Amino acid sequence: MASSISLAKFAHPLVPLNSSARSADRPLFSDPFFSSASSLLAASSSAKLPKLAASRSTRLRAVSNVVKETNLNSAPSPSNLLITKQEGLVLFEDMVLGRAFEDMCAQMYYRGKMFGFVHLYNGQEAVSTGFIKLLKKEDCVVSTYRDHVHALSKGVPARQVMSELFGKTTGCCRGQGGSMHMFSKEHNVLGGFAFIGEGIPVATGAAFSSKYRREVYKDESCDQVTLAFFGDGTCNNGQFYECLNMAALWKLPIIFVVENNLWAIGMSHLRATSDPEIWKKGPAFGMPGVHVDGMDVLKVREVAEEAIGRARRGEGPTLVECETYRFRGHSLADPDELRDPSEKSHYATRDPITALKKYLLENNLATEAELKGIEKRIEEEVEEAVEFADKSPVPARSQLLENVFADPRGFGIGPDGRYRCEDSKFTEGTAQV
Ligand SMILES: Cc1ncc(C[n+]2csc(CCOP(=O)(O)OP(=O)(O)O)c2C)c(N)n1
Ligand SMILES: [Mg+2]
């Protein structure tokens, strides 16, 4: 493969991942969008690099044109900007919501309001926002255990997500899923998954179903796209490769979005994988592989727009590697002592929300007062979500064995129709079953 990135550079925490030096090193990123599967592979030869690099600027202009056309209601922005004011504010609000929601989760967790593991998304907001805010309601999102913010970006109300975390009946899964299993049929959020890689085949199945309905049932209106989000560590899991194969083979409308935050719990990505450049796995399967700075929502959005467009037009899947960073430990139970403090402080200076704020202000797309107004509104929304969750009822005991597919008589329910867990002999281990 043509790539001149050295591992040392990739690993160095003080080299900004979006520096121009780095981009110049990686002329292949994003450009496979313009190639068929076969020319993608051919493009790996260094002779093709100048041409591919040139096509990137063409794509940038095309994106800004599309954005302008689809936002007739907003004030026109200068031609060199990729977003309108209205879009910028939507992105900002969504990222602020994600951050404020997660900060509140940490408080509530330590106050004992939530149970089990809780994995926060702080620092990675540009990925969720950059992709999901471009989706239609019918499009699907599949997440991992780090799923609150994906659900929020897809439109699941904050109060429903918070109630789910509190284990209450008003939660999006009626309190039965908890932090790692956000699901909403209404919003086409097809789940958070505690087992790594488990969501990828579910997403592939959803994409297959869209294509099947369109091509076999001739439902022309069915142009849904599915986004599968997962981490760098998960890319060492077999399900990832099986799904890349099927998605490429059947040209499924799916985007595999890798949130490469450089760590899988306490395992460095560089120590765990034979080739740390995950994007390269796309061309290996005959689909575009794209690398993007996942701390820059505008760059993520630009790549997402292209990938979603391809999928919707029936041109098949894309693998997007977003280089990002989580600002907190792996979960709220993780003391986060393994990562180097200089690495953490380096990424803290690249906070995606601060960067977007700066962009909006410098380009006169928003005023300080407007952004403060959004922050205040979100703060109130999150406070309200906590009050709502706190006041909501806990599920009735009768809900315990709902959605359990095995026959609950026997293990769960005794011959008298009562829950066996209510029988003290059963909990003592002395019951005769
Ligand atoms: C099949 C399976 N094996 C192991 C685990 C334990 N586990 C939980 S999170 C995790 C690391 C995942 O890292 P990554 O994919 O990079 O996601 P991140 O947490 O960084 O978002 C592992 C190995 C699991 N949940 N599922
Ligand atoms: Mg990771």
Describe it.
- There is one protein chain.
- This protein is α/β, with parallel strands linked by helices and 433 residues long.
- The protein contains 17 helices and seven strands.
- Helix content is 43%, strand content 7%.
- Helix 8 (158-165) packs across helix 16 (368-391).
- It has helices at 7-11, 20-25, 37-42, 49-69, 85-110, 125-132, 148-153, 158-165, 199-215, 238-249, 269-272, 281-285, 297-312, 341-348, 352-362, 368-391, 424-428, and strands spanning 140-142, 226-231, 254-260, 263-264, 267-268, 289-293, 318-323.
- The chain has a single domain, classed as Rossmann fold (3-Layer(aba) Sandwich).
- The chain is globular.
- Strands 1-2-3-7-6 form a five-stranded parallel β-sheet, sandwiched between helices. A two-stranded antiparallel sheet has the order 4-5.
- The N and C termini lie far apart (61 Å).
- The model is unreliable at 1-77 (pLDDT under 50).
- Residues 231-233, 261, 263-264 line the site of magnesium ion.
- GO terms for molecular function: pyruvate dehydrogenase (acetyl-transferring) activity.
- Its EC number is 1.2.4.1.
- Residues 94-395 form the Dehydrogenase E1 component domain.
- It is an enzyme of class 1 (oxidoreductase).
